[in-house]
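Section 5: illustrative case.
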């Protein structure tokens, strides 16, 4: 991804998620598919995770049940900072408590995650998709970031 694409994607992700609170989760059709919902002053956003993810907290474990428990402890907590990987679109959401949600952005054949601003899925103004092979597709309606 070019520097311009990276900067645009980072700006959109900050707009969608910085200071937003994690407010809910739906479980998708596959074992790794989770749909996370966020809200901030009337702005709703979401992340659909279709690949590996984990929560870094004080006690790290990679058991799925324990990871979901750690994720649920973040409910209503606000996101302090958003980071996007440079080489591959790994996504990191840092919460006010210091917990970090890491979402893998590289898979050979499948999309890893999508993020947007319309519920339940889609994008009114923004849609980002972590594509196969570590590419990132950015769809933005206008320049209002």
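Designed sequence:
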């Amino acid at each position: 991804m070019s520097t311009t694409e990276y900067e645009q994607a980072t700006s959109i992700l900050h707009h969608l998620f910085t200071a937003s609170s994690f407010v809910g989760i739906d479980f998708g059709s596959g074992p790794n598919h989770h749909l996370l919902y966020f809200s901030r002053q009337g702005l709703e956003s979401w992340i659909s995770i279709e690949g590996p993810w984990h929560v870094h907290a004080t006690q790290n474990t990679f058991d799925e049940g324990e990871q979901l428990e750690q994720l649920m402890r973040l409910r209503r907590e606000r996101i302090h900072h958003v980071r996007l990987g440079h080489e591959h679109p790994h996504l990191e959401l840092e919460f006010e408590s210091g917990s970090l949600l890491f979402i893998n952005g590289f898979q050979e054949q499948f999309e890893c995650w999508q993020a947007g601003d319309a519920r339940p899925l889609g994008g009114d103004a923004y849609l980002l998709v972590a594509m196969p092979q570590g590419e990132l597709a950015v769809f933005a309606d206008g320049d209002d970031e």
